[in-house]
Amino acid sequence: QVQLVESGGDLVQPGGSLRLSCAASGSIFRIATMGWSRQAPGKQREFVADIRSGGTAVYADSVKGRFTISPVNASNTTYLQMNDLTPEDTAVYYCDASVTTISRSTSMYRGQGTQVTVSS
After folding, report:
1. Which of 4, 44, 46, 80 is most buried when burial is the number of CB atoms within 10 A of its CB?
2. Residues 6+ apart with CB under 8 A from 37
């Protein structure tokens, strides 16, 4: 099994910054992609950013230039640096990963989420 654990969510003022982290653990053979989605109250979950195993990062238009996702490190952890936050960024942020386990089974996994609130 694979577990994803997010951390770093907090209350921050508009214009502020936060760094989220996502750590994957378990029977991991390979992580193909790792990234973030978010869900605001009353809205559908939306893609935020992800990083591919080759290092390519993809961002939603709404966060380009403000958010940066780091490559997955040797501890199977990625970070999402979020700058110039606005109230529209308020949401529960989820970590998503495509993982191949040591038994060579590939599945998508999602963490339990971390709350980001942007408010003055």
Report:
1. 80
2. 45, 46, 47, 48, 93, 94, 96
**Distance in angstroms (rounded) separating the CA atoms of residues 99 and 105:** 8
Taking CA atoms, 115 is separated from 56, 69, 85, 86, 89, in Å, by 26, 18, 14, 14, 10
What amino acid occupies position 57? A
Spell out the per-residue pLDDT of the chain, length 120, in tens.
899 999 999 999 999 999 999 999 999 999 999 999 999 999 999 999 999 988 899 999 999 999 999 999 999 999 999 999 999 999 999 999 999 999 999 999 999 999 999 999
20 is written with which tokens? 């989220």
Sign of CA dihedral 23, 25, 30, 32: negative
In whole angstroms, how far apart are CA 97 and each of 31, 67, 87, 102, 107? 7, 18, 26, 15, 8
Please report how many Cα atoms fall inside a 13 Å half-sphere around the Cα of residue 106, on the Cβ side: 5
Tokens read off for 91: 């949401």
CA distance 106 to 73: 20
